[in-house]
Design goal:
Length: 346
């Protein structure tokens, strides 16, 4: 019996020795699904190189904002910045750190048609239910060299609270007075027509399965699934396809002091017009998120790594990295983080 107890104590001592000073920190985040494949890769790579575990759940931008506000996250992720009205509901000031640029591709399922031109007015008409057939004269006028079928248009849209929906609906609200007056913009809006499903992958799958359908998804999902993508007329009158190059171009602007800015309908001549930043949001004072000082340091280091070394993986995974001119001001946002009012060291 004595030997057994001694063995248990030795085992316990060895376990404590093996973990003492090496306890793995854990950071908890949730939110946007648009950047999830990229975040999953970045968090995995960072965890391998550093003694930090990162648990991120792609629950949607609205959920990321809500959970950070409710105190259940260390950081949130969103494709829609927190509004002044929403900010007042938080237990402290929120910082927005742009991580990369997302673009919303308009995908469709039409047999033997791989090139299609659409405008904001046409998209608004389709998702309002005013344009119901692919051979509508308005669509034919923009695509005179394509034999469009007399086939019902089936709009597919998100059924969950989504930053992708925010970018798309914000774009339509900016350019279509009728859309703005009847539907408006938001992460969750009251869609007049169409079939709803959750997440980017859900929309992608439904469009692939339904002939005559059209939907909107984050660009990486369109690229990876090899679906047909429409070219969109931008503010400069150019027909632009969603690519990494045109998405990066859309963000070549000056960031405001708080990084909260929309780049839909970008003024950049070669920029894709349905684009937007995707942010990680944190409390300026990390103690408000019920984090320890060490966790706050780990979070700050992670964010700076994502804005520096981590940027090279964005383009590799079909996400648009930040233009070089935006990296420094984004790091400046991270450096505003404090813990109980005191600066967090590098």
């Amino acid at each position: 019996m004595a030997k057994a107890i001694k063995a248990l104590w030795i085992g316990f001592f060895l376990l404590m020795m093996s973990t003492s000073g090496h306890a793995k920190s854990q950071l908890i985040g949730a939110g946007a699904t648009l950047p999830y494949p990229l975040y999953s890769k970045l968090f995995s790579m960072y965890s391998e190189k550093n003694n930090v575990k990162i648990n991120y759940q792609p629950t949607g931008s609205g959920s990321g904002i809500m959970q950070l506000r409710n105190g259940t996250l260390d950081f949130g992720a969103t494709d829609s910045f927190v509004t002044n009205k929403e900010m007042a509901q938080f237990n402290g000031q929120i910082l927005h750190i742009p991580i990369c640029i997302g673009s919303v591709a308009i995908i469709y399922n039409l047999k033997d048609i791989t090139q299609l031109k659409l405008t904001a007015d046409l998209l608004a008409g389709i998702f309002l239910g005013d344009i119901t057939s692919w051979d509508d004269p308005k669509i034919k006028a923009l695509n005179p060299n394509i034999k469009l079928p007399k086939q019902k248009i089936v709009p597919i849209r998100r059924a969950d609270s989504s930053g992708t929906s925010y970018i798309f609906s914000h774009y339509l609200s900016s350019l279509s007075p009728k859309w703005k007056a009847t539907v408006g913009e938001g992460m969750s809006v009251k869609w007049p027509v169409g079939a709803g499903t959750k997440f980017n992958v859900g929309v992608t799958n439904m469009v692939q399965d339904i002939s005559g359908s059209i939907g909107y998804v984050s660009l990486p999902y369109a690229i990876e699934n090899k679906v047909s993508v429409a070219s969109i007329k931008n503010k400069s009158g150019q027909w632009i396809s969603p690519t990494l190059k045109s998405t990066i171009a859309s963000a070549k602007i000056k960031l405001p002091a708080d990084s909260r800015v929309s780049i839909t309908d970008t003024p950049v001549a070669d920029g894709y017009p349905i684009s937007g930043f995707t942010w990680i949001i944190v409390y300026k004072d990390a103690e408000k998120a019920k984090m320890s000082f060490e966790e706050a340091k780990d979070l700050k280091k992670l964010l700076i790594w994502m804005l520096t070394e981590g940027q090279v993986y964005a383009d590799f995974m079909n996400y648009a990295s930040l233009p070089t001119v935006l990296v420094k001001p984004s790091i400046e946002q991270v450096n505003k983080m404090v813990y109980k009012g005191q600066a967090i060291p590098e």
